[in-house]
Design goal:
By secondary structure, this protein is an all-alpha fold. It has helices at 2-19, 26-59, 63-74, 86-110.
Length: 111
């Protein structure tokens, strides 16, 4: 029985040692609270920015640009004549390409 009493006393001693550590978690709790507040602020900021973005998007209209385009289309603009036909332009550019090829061929031969 004496052995049992000593074991109980040892357990009592260790238990009181654990309890008397007097450890608080105030710093950890303050840090967690600070992180939660920062997260809350970032979410609120994001929500505010999205609200401004949505408000701008909903306020956009195409009425003004459409009216300007309709005004331009209603006016009689002078006909812009193409001075050369597209086939003529292509023909001239092909001839120029052929002359450039001949020139480069002759130039390479002379080297």
């Amino acid at each position: 029985m004496e052995n049992f009493n000593t074991v109980i006393q040892k357990y009592e001693y260790f238990f009181t040692q654990i309890i008397s550590v007097n450890k608080t978690y105030d710093e950890e709790i303050a840090r967690i609270k600070q992180l939660q507040d920062a997260w809350t602020q970032s979410v609120l900021k994001r929500e505010n920015e999205l609200a401004v973005y949505d408000k701008r998007n909903f306020s956009l209209t195409v009425n003004d640009p459409l009216k300007i385009m309709q005004d331009i289309n209603s006016k009689n603009l002078p006909n812009l004549n193409n001075s050369q036909d597209l086939t003529k332009i292509l023909e001239n550019s092909n001839q120029l390409n052929q002359r450039l090829k001949r020139f480069s061929y002759r130039y390479q031969k002379e080297k």
